[in-house]
Amino acid sequence: MSFRTTFAAAFAAALLSFPAFAEGITVLDPYARAASPAAKSGAAFMMIRNETDQDDTLIAARTDAAARVELHTHIEVSDGVLQMTEIDGGIDLPAGGTHHMLRGGDHVMLMGLTAPLEQDATIDVTLVFEKAGEVVVTIPIDNERKPEAGAHGEHSH
Ligand SMILES: [Cu+2]
After folding, report:
1. Total of domains in the chain
2. Which pLDDT value is given to residue 5?
3. Cα of 140 from ligand 1 centre, angstroms
4. What CATH number is given to the structural domain containing 52?
5. Which residue of 3, 14, 52, 128 lies most exposed, with the fewest beta carbons within 10 A?
6. pLDDT beneath 70, residues of the chain
């Protein structure tokens, strides 16, 4: 099996591991990680696919795993310096579109973790969409996951 084939198979398996569906909304390859082993905060990343024929918006998220959950993105505050900021008005999901929440970009911010994010454990996160309503996603903890190619590299989480 070539590297390319192996990678494609692993990627497909990852995509199939934890699918969540609701009225045409599909969440693919979610994972969460702590900012550091002793951190009180962490973040969750995933791909959200809107397979409906109408635009939707991810307006909020919540979980028992954290005291507070916010939808964050990174903005460049000065040359190459990124800072996290809450996304005003939620994350737009155009009809037929896929939104990637990647390290260095958009993420579900978990503030005030109620328990440490242990490698390979899972947390349930409820995503709240304007039109599709609530989708509960079971998200595996993967503190060892490397940033995706194309992301801005390593950040605080
Ligand atoms: Cu954040």
Report:
1. 1
2. 55
3. 18
4. 2.60.40.1890
5. 3
6. 1-23, 149-157
